[in-house]
């Protein structure tokens, strides 16, 4: 089991603990807002399990049916998490709307609020771990899980403040109103996750900053070539694919051209660890006089 999968397994454990704490807080207070917060934690458990399964699939090596590997499985996890978030938002709204029409007293029991606060702190710490590890491993599944949990933390803070205010002021409609705001917040979060994941499934290219870095590396390590054009990039989970045409003098030997390709591959992979680089070598009459010029 690699490090990324171990982190995903840790997410399942943390999500289950947080779920238990939030439902305990709901039982101690009877707050609809705290109930909505606990309901979202069910989604967190399901999302963590989905991410764990996706990462295990993504870690499989390439085979005859999947010659480019299984790394795109991580995007399915992020899409599924977005769908689950939307379902959670609908469920919360179903509870909050009737409660808003007929507000009931909220017991702002200190014990319940403290339990919920403890769950929020645990979530915040774990979200930091997921975001750090997700960036390091370039894992869409871990990053999606981290962003979702971070949204949950913000939601929990707002809910706690609202429940406390409802209990202290007697404005009981604040509790279901905050539950509705929670629903809107996580709905927006789910939409963002699905949008990013669909971009990966549709072979979206690298971000502009990364593309500039790739072009700079290409320009600095292609001595002997004339130009490079038709650069194409795409992400597939933690993998980055880079393809371009390399124009060399027509009289250059295959061995010399191959040496330039090896140098370029090494340089790009040093900049983007694990990148898959494909280079199509062309003679100088195929030059397009644009793209990346050799320094």
TrEMBL record:
The UniProt record lists the keyword Transmembrane: yes
Keywords for this protein: Membrane, Transmembrane, Transmembrane helix, Transport
Superkingdom in the source lineage: Bacteria
Protein's membrane topology: Multi-pass membrane protein
Residues passing through the membrane, by range: 7-29, 41-59, 75-93, 113-132, 153-171, 177-194
Cation efflux protein transmembrane domain ranges (all copies): 11-202
Cation efflux protein cytoplasmic domain span: 208-283
Pfam family membership, one: Cation_efflux
Record carries keyword Transport: yes
InterPro entries tied to this protein: Cation_efflux (IPR002524), Cation_efflux_CTD (IPR027470), Cation_efflux_CTD_sf (IPR036837), Cation_efflux_TM (IPR058533), Cation_efflux_TMD_sf (IPR027469), CDF_Transporter (IPR050291)
Subcellular localization: Membrane
Family named by the database record: Belongs to the cation diffusion facilitator (CDF) transporter (TC 2.A.4) family.
Protein's UniProt name: Ferrous-iron efflux pump FieF
Organism field: Deinococcus carri
Lineage: Bacteria, Thermotogati, Deinococcota, Deinococci, Deinococcales
């Amino acid at each position: 089991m690699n490090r990324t999968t171990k982190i995903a397994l840790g997410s399942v454990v943390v999500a289950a603990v947080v779920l238990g704490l939030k439902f305990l807080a709901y039982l101690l207070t009877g707050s609809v807002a705290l109930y909505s917060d606990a309901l979202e934690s069910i989604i967190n458990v399901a999302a963590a399990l989905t991410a764990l399964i996706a990462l295990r699939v993504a870690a499989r090596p390439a085979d005859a049916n999947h010659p480019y590997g299984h790394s795109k499985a991580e995007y399915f996890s992020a899409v599924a998490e977005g769908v689950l978030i939307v379902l959670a938002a609908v469920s919360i709204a179903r509870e909050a709307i009737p409660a808003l029409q007929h507000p009931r007293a909220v017991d702002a029991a200190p014990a319940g609020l403290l339990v919920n606060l403890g769950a929020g702190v645990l979530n915040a710490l774990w979200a930091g771990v997921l975001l750090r590890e997700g960036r390091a491993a370039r894992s869409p599944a871990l990053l999606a899980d981290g962003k979702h949990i971070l949204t949950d933390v913000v939601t929990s803070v707002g809910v706690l403040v609202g429940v406390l205010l409802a209990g202290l002021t007697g404005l009981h409609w604040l509790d279901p109103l905050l539950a509705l705001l929670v629903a809107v917040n996580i709905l927006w979060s789910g939409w963002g996750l699905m949008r990013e994941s669909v971009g990966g499934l549709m072979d979206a290219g690298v971000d502009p900053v990364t593309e500039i870095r790739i072009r700079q590396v290409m320009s600095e390590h292609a001595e002997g070539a004339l130009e490079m054009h038709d650069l194409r990039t795409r992400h597939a989970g933690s993998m980055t694919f880079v393809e371009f045409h390399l124009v060399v003098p027509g009289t250059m030997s295959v061995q010399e051209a191959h040496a330039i390709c090896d140098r370029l591959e090494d340089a790009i992979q040093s900049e983007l660890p694990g990148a898959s680089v494909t280079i199509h070598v062309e003679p100088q009459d195929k030059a397009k006089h644009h793209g990346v010029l050799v320094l």
